[in-house]
Design a protein that fits this description.
With about 625 residues, the chain is an alpha/beta fold. The chain is built from 23 helices and 16 strands. The longest helix is centred in the middle third of the chain and has 23 residues. The termini are far apart. The relative contact order is 0.09. The mean pLDDT is about 95.
Length: about 625
């Protein structure tokens, strides 16, 4: 037998050219347009092909770089893919918060995020109580305060010195981002120039702690405002560059500024695109910092914290949020994030409990301890698809970044309204995509659990985003943080709180296959408003169906049949039902004839689900 141990896999098969693949695909399409059928036009503004080959990598000039090497597209660490597992703790009582931190540190967490909402808690004594017995240099400590960040960092530094912590080993951050606050609130904690002066002061307080970062870039705000991945990355880079420019002009060295910046990205459910975003982000940021001519290239590394997105999370069927955050956690870790917060699945609408927090922690621990994601550096490297996504995102984000810089930088572009306008445009497109179910949110605008009642389980104050505690006037128009599910949730909560829950009756008649398919579609459609759905196997006559609908005290009747049968059946049903609204399932050729006879309600795959259901809620006085 011949020795084949050194033969390449599949070497016995003939090589197939790209043109041969295209010829085969074209033949299988049987005349259909290749671009329309198989090429995906992304929200980010570029096309994704249905297949890629090794030749598609030939023009990518960064592929020879190794992990840990400039421009860091393959990650900052050449030996592993380790990341910090962060859990955020809202500080209401410092002793309780400390006890909780110590507890979760025994459960796999190695990064704590203290969220201090009350400025009165910012004092050296309270910080000392918060950090009591948290002494390991392997634990990252992070703080997020609405106001009082200078007092906060002074207190943190004083406590760390009192604890005799080794300055070079302390890891953590303060989420101080006045430009980010300006972006979502229309104002920083004070006038913008003064706020950036304060950023320099905060950075100088912690200058002896090289791994404690005090300048935050919250690109995640764009993720949670419905922006595209390219917009989040480009505007995040522009925010970071604004800090580089402003702080170096104020006398800080390039190395000190770059080493102090931490980027906070949101991670959406667009699995491969999010992996590529982080890879592209590191590459572009390295190029930006390099242009400032720092001493050495280590400071060109982008330090990334990732958070699972709020935008695609739902309060109905909330267990689905666990599936969403799991894929998002995978994207972030495969993309090379340095730390990650997985938001508990129920945190949108109530204070998360021990169970939901445990699930959130374990989602990361499964990736670390059972799937060994931390063992392999840049596992997506060489993937024809992901490498091309990385390049496409980098090109598009760089072009948008340059456009912002040509307007004078991030702050100037915000004052002009340029950034807000682009985000709003993309967000409205996505909002419409959710409304028409071209972007699906399982359990909310698609396949709802119609028996679910949630209004008694939610905390309205958690759902409504609160503004910053500062009361000064707005300098710019802010971007609007919202979730894709909000409009549907408002609709359904209104139904839950109505005096009577509407009943939708499926009048199934005629062709078996069509009536069943259309009743399932219609039940799913009206279920998104929280209506009670009464389905039926079928009626021999329209008269029998109408009689059953009246007996059921239906508020809406949906006629489910075939297109051929609607011309005769629909007018008869309309006459027998009287004032009860009649809906036709589908888009029959006789629609215009039916409309002329007063039948105006149709539901089909081209319907705007949200607007249609809002219309029915209005009709039913909900």
């Amino acid at each position: 037998m011949a020795d084949k141990t050194n033969q390449l896999l599949f070497s016995d098969f003939p090589k197939i050219s790209t043109q041969e693949w295209m010829d085969k695909i074209t033949a299988d399409l049987k005349g259909a347009d290749f671009e329309k059928k198989l090429v995906w036009r992304t929200n980010e503004g570029f096309n994704v092909q249905p297949f890629y080959r090794s030749e598609d990598l030939e023009s990518l000039n960064y592929l020879e770089s190794q992990p840990g090497q400039f421009p860091y597209v393959r990650g900052n660490n050449e030996k592993s893919n380790k990341w910090f597992v962060r859990q955020d703790i809202v500080v209401k009582d410092v002793k309780e918060a400390n006890e909780k931190a110590l507890t979760v540190l025994t459960k796999g967490v190695d990064s704590i995020g203290f969220v201090i909402e009350d400025k009165a808690l910012v004092s050296e004594a309270n910080i000392e109580a918060l950090l009591k017995n948290i002494i390991s240099d392997d634990v990252e400590i992070n703080f997020n305060a609405c106001c009082g960040n200078k007092e906060l960092v002074e207190s943190v530094v004083a406590v760390l010195n009192k604890m005799n912590r080794t300055h070079a080993e302390v890891k953590g951050s303060i989420n101080f981002d006045p430009i980010g606050n300006l972006t979502i609130n229309g104002k920083a904690c004070c006038e913008t120039e003064k706020a950036i002066d304060r950023v320099k002061e905060v950075a100088e307080v912690a200058k002896n702690f090289p791994q404690f970062r005090t300048v935050a870039v919250n690109a995640r705000h764009f993720n949670n405002a419905g922006a595209s991945i390219v917009q989040e990355l480009a505007f995040g880079l522009s925010m970071g560059n604004e800090y580089m420019t402003q702080l170096t002009e104020r006398g800080m060295s390039v190395n000190d500024v770059a080493a102090n910046i931490k980027f906070n990205f949101g991670i959406s459910g667009n699995y491969f695109m999010e992996i590529a975003k982080l890879r592209a982000g590191r590459m572009l940021w390295a190029k930006i910092v390099e242009a400032y001519k720092p001493t050495g290239v280590e400071v060109c590394k982008m330090h990334i914290h990732s958070e699972t997105s709020d935008w695609n999370k739902t309060i109905f069927d909330p267990n689905v949020n666990m599936l969403r955050t799991q894929t998002e956690a995978m994207s972030a870790t495969l993309g090379g994030t340095q730390s990650l917060t997985v938001q508990p699945y129920d945190s949108l609408y109530k204070d998360s409990d021990e169970f939901s927090e445990r699930i959130a922690r374990n989602q990361q621990l499964l990736l670390k301890e059972e799937s060994h994601f931390e063992k392999i550096v840049d596992p997506s490297a060489g993937s024809y698809y992901i490498e091309n996504l990385t390049n496409s995102i980098a090109e598009q984000a760089w072009a948008l970044f340059v456009e912002v810089e040509e307007k004078g930088g991030y702050l100037a572009a915000m004052k002009e309204g340029f950034i807000q306008g682009l985000v709003k445009e993309t967000a409205e497109k996505r909002r419409k995509a959710v409304a028409t179910r071209r972007e699906n949110l399982l359990g909310t605008n698609q396949f709802p659990n119609t028996g679910e009642i949630i209004s008694g389980n939610i905390d309205a104050k958690k759902i409504v985003k609160s503004a910053c505690c500062c009361d000064e006037g707005k300098e710019v128009e802010p971007i609007n943080l919202f979730r894709g599910a909000q409009d549907f949730e408002e609709l359904r909560l209104a139904t839950e709180n109505a005096a009577k829950r509407p009943k939708v009756f499926m009048l199934t008649y005629g062709n078996l296959a069509m009536r069943l398919a259309r009743s399932q579609f219609s039940g799913n459609f009206f279920g998104c408003a929280g209506y009670e759905i009464q389905d039926n196997l079928g009626f021999e006559t329209i008269e029998a169906g109408v009689e059953a609908a009246k007996a059921a005290k239906a508020d809406i009747v949906v006629l489910c049949s075939s297109d051929d049968e609607y011309a005769e059946a629909a007018p008869k049903a309309k006459e027998l039902l009287g004032d009860t609204p009649l809906v036709i399932a589908g888009a029959p050729a006789c629609a215009d004839e039916l409309k002329a006879k007063g039948i105006t309600n149709f539901v089909n795959v081209r319907s705007n689900v949200l607007e249609t259901l809002q219309g029915f809620n209005s009709l039913l006085n909900i």
